[in-house]
Amino acid sequence: MQKLFLFTGVAALLFSCNSSKQLTGANQLTREEKEGGWQLLFDGNTTKGWHKYGGDPAGKAWKINEGCLQLDTTVKENWQIKDGGDIITDQEFENFELQLEWKISKDGNSGIIFYIHEDKVKYNWPWETGPEMQILDNKGHPDAKIIKHRAGDLYDLISCSTETVKPYGEWNLAKIKCINGKLDLYLNGNKVVSTTLWDENWKKMVAGSKFRNMAGFGTYKKGHIGLQDHGNEVCFRNIKIRKL
Question: Fewer Cβ atoms within 10 A, N terminus or C terminus of the chain?
Answer without folding.
Answer: N
